[in-house]
Amino acid sequence: MVAETESPVSTSSTTESLIAAADAHSAHTYHPLPVVVATADGAWMTDVEGRRYLDLLAGYSALNFGHGNRRILEAAKAQLERVTLTSRAFHHDRFAAFCEQLAELCGMEMVLPMNTGSEAVETAVKTARKWGYRVKGVPAEMAKVVVAGNNFHGRTTTIISFSTDPEARADFGPYTPGFEIVPYGDLTAMREALTENTVAVLLEPIQGEAGVLVPPEGYLPAVRELTRERNVLFVADEIQSGLGRTGRTFACEHEGVVPDMYVLGKALGGGVVPVSAVVSSAAVLGVFRPGEHGSTFGGNPLACAVALEVIAMLRTGEFQARAAELGEHLHRELGALTGSGRVTGVRGRGLWAGIDIARTYGTGREVSEKLMERGVLVKDTQGATIRIAPPLVIGKEDLDWGLAQLRGVLGG
Ligand SMILES: *Cc1c(COP(=O)(O)O)cnc(C)c1O
What we know:
Elements: H1 14-25, E1 37-41, E2 44-47, E3 52-55, H2 58-61, H3 70-82, H4 95-106, E4 110-114, H5 117-136, E5 144-148, H6 157-161, H7 166-169, E6 179-182, H8 187-193, E7 198-203, H9 219-229, E8 233-237, E9 261-264, E10 276-280, H10 282-285, H11 301-315, H12 318-335, E11 343-348, E12 353-357, H13 364-373, E13 376-377, E14 379-381, E15 385-388, H14 396-410
Parallel strand pairs: 3-13, 5-6, 5-7, 7-8, 8-9
Antiparallel strand pairs: 1-2, 2-3, 4-10, 9-10, 11-12, 12-15, 14-15
The structure holds pyridoxal-5'-phosphate (PLP).
């Protein structure tokens, strides 16, 4: 408790008092922009003071279908009235359809449902290790997973063990062994890292947190080729890049790559509930026996009902097409910013972009705050980059308005 005399900050503003209370009572694992959201609809959020903001982050792609998507809400509400949780101790009547349809969307055979993205990545690592020991014949305790530098795969103890971000790692050791880190996009390093004991290569087909980094053309197909030759599983973490974001269902598709395993999350839960999954072949996911892995909430009826609606929406292809079309427009417009002197680079694919801010102009955080003042919400990453990932349902006029605000701040 803070004594009254030590609190000179006015509490007349609802925003300030809510932020102060959050700061006082929550662990400071985030540094949010000073906006307190009360309601949201489509690509727009409204704060507690009634101010409206265009959401150009979309929950890091968890909100690909927008806030309050009617189809998803209806599916969730209908399921809420039927049954929400059974645990996997029993079957429920949405489970088979969810697994079958998700596998089909992925062109795969089997699904292992979890909740958060991190859990799905953990599941992928466990799957690859078990496959390595039981199918590939790797000697006990020797399995290796090769990952890329600057990766972001989540926050669990094992996952941060193979992060290269000092903030994500410091003081959380000892770390889980069994990982080898190579530079992203470096095929020679990848080739040299693979040994007889390598069970998987785990990559983001586009690195989101690293700043929406698209690998050099040909890298993903070459890794696919290499892993096939060496009997190593290619695991694509499409948690942020997948489910329509880049203009295709999966970012791997842009280069004609089919991995051995997709790791999905974020948008799979329709912005309503956490839903994640590992999707693969029967030869790979078939390694599990009852009791070897699980989750109380994984594949629950509510999650399955919401995800089924998400899958149905993706099956139409309209969201992928929209992301491709609006994405082209977005990148054309952002490209024009690079001459301003305030922007040093723009990258991305589909409705997804990283914009590098010139150090002489300011930090990513400062630019995010300036955009917030203009009613646009984005998130900085890596200090000097801002990330743009609007809901795929954003209207063209709204996107253009957002771009005009970006030009106002970064156009110079
Ligand atoms: C967000 C993300 C994760 C982790 O997902 P959580 O649901 O936050 O645990 C893993 N991989 C990628 C590529 C992500 O973007």
